[in-house]
Amino acid sequence: MIPAPFTYQRASSVDEALDLASQAGEDAKFLAGGHSLMPLMKLRLAVPDTLIDIGRIGELSYIRADDGHIAVGALTSHDDIARSDLLASELPLLAQAAGQIGDPQVRHCGTIGGSLAHSDPAADLPAVALALGATFVARGPSGTREIAAGDFFLSLFETVLEPGELLTEIRIPRPQAAGWSFQKFAKRGIDWAIVGVAVQGSSVALVNMGSTPIRATAVEQALAAGSGPREAAAHAAEGTSAPDDLNGPRAYREHLARVLVARALEEAGSRA
């Protein structure tokens, strides 16, 4: 299908992007890599009056070590994240997950900020951000604010970002526990995960097991009580609301969650 008509504008800085969004009103959308937004526009599930292209704002593409955390600019591509020596050393979970997204074209064009702001529960990086305890930095008409990853995702394609507000940075604390793992099951390597799991230490987050990425709190509680990986993984489906669609019924996804969480916990334990 063809998207509905829209006005296209290109911003060369964050300040310009925010000014353009303020002028355009609530029906404006920011465009980064476009791999999430454009398909929705073609299906008329998103019908913005104005698209503000932020893809060339160089000040939002970086990976650096700051005091106590790693800062990643929102326009940093998946490929840059996957190839980062700093992330391979400090946050290998993030680098590993980014390297498994889609195909090379998607990884070169897609951005971490775009993936997070899109809030698709089938995407990999939102769950990774949850497991890592990330904090998101957003700028908008009211200034700059910090949002915990656990408070950011509201529902399918919906976040706490307000109209005209732009996600600019992801701050991830250096993990205190070394063990990590990222597991996902998909029909093909380039497909969205039917189910996925991100583990960092004793933090466990699930992909495509609800209307948002979610923490596997029952698993985390079992681990805290002294359960082993397989015993804790038996609780992986508790508190979830997995979709029931052509890719598999809910019971199948719940089974996959238990299997993948067990594998991830065992792998994380071997890296601890």
What's the short story on this structure?
This protein is of the alpha+beta class. The chain is built from twelve helices and 14 strands. The protein has helices at residues 14-24, 37-42, 78-83, 85-90, 92-98, 104-109, 112-118, 124-131, 149-152, 217-224, 229-233, 250-271; strands at 7-10, 28-31, 50-53, 63-66, 69-73, 135-140, 143-148, 153-155, 158-159, 166-173, 180-185, 195-200, 203-207, 214-215.
Question: Could you characterize what this model shows?
Answer:
- This protein is of the alpha+beta class and about 270 residues long.
- The protein folds into three domains: about 5-55, Uridine Diphospho-n-acetylenolpyruvylglucosamine Reductase, domain 2 (2-Layer Sandwich), CATH 3.30.43; about 60-175, Uridine Diphospho-n-acetylenolpyruvylglucosamine Reductase, domain 3, CATH 3.30.465; about 180-270, 2-Layer Sandwich (Enolase-like, domain 1).
- Helices cover about 35% and strands about 25% of the residues.
- The chain contains twelve helices and 14 strands.
- The chain has helices at about 15-25, 35-40, 80-85, 85-90, 90-100, 105-110, 110-120, 125-130, 150, 215-225, 230-235, 250-270; strands at about 5-10, 30, 50-55, 65, 70-75, 135-140, 145-150, 155, 160, 165-175, 180-185, 195-200, 205, 215.
- The protein has a five-stranded antiparallel sheet with strand order 4-5-10-6-7. Strands 11-12-13-14 form a four-stranded antiparallel sheet, sandwiched between helices.
- A hairpin with a 6-residue loop joins strand 13 (about 205) and strand 14.
- Helix 5 (about 90-100) runs antiparallel to helix 8 (about 125-130).
- The mean pLDDT is about 95.
